[in-house]
Amino acid sequence: MDSRLFDVCYGGARGGGKTDAALGDFAFHAQKFGQGARGLLVRRTRTALEPTIARARELFRPFGGVWADQKSRFTFEGGAGSLPQKMAAEARPPDVVRRDSRETI
Fold first, then answer.
1. Is residue 75 domain-resident?
2. The whole model's pTM is what?
3. pLDDT by residue (tens digit) across 22-72?
4. Distance between CA atoms of 46 and 11, rounded to whole angstroms?
5. 17 in the Ramachandran plot: left (φ > 0), alpha (ψ -120 to 50) or beta?
6. Which residue from 78, 76, 85, 6 is spatially nearest to 40, judged by alpha carbons?
7. Looking at the 3D structure of the chain, how many domains does it have?
């Protein structure tokens, strides 16, 4: 994503490409800044990260991104690193409530 703005916010329904945009943006960032590039992607649970990690493997491969399972991180040929992490319960704002899995979103 190319923007003259420092911060770009994504919103919308599931399946709108927000994750792909964030991952693609980091891939270009890693290419541009090499060892100086660091990224952090947060989801509430590890289970919620699995599809994101799978998609990142596809998107990062052409940029030299490799998933290191034991370290739970991507590394790039230029030395950049990306850490997909679950959000620690104590780090969640008090108004964040996990939806009941039976609800339709």
1. yes
2. 0.68
3. 898 888 888 888 888 888 888 888 888 899 999 999 999 998 888 988 888
4. 22
5. left
6. 85
7. 1
Does residue 9 lie within any of the structural domains? no
Instruction: Look at the alpha carbons of 43, 48, 50, 55 in this order and tell me if their dihedral is positive or negative.
Output: negative
Q: Please report whether residue 6 resides in a domain.
A: no
For residue 42, CA distances in Å to 3, 17, 47, 69, 94 come to: 23, 16, 12, 17, 17
**Cα 35 to Cα 91: distance, rounded to the nearest angstrom:** 28
Token pair for 86 = 């679950």
15: in domain: no
**What is the per-residue pLDDT for 54?**
93
What's the rounded Cα separation, in Å, for the pair 16 and 88? 26
Q: Which domain holds residue 47?
A: 35-91
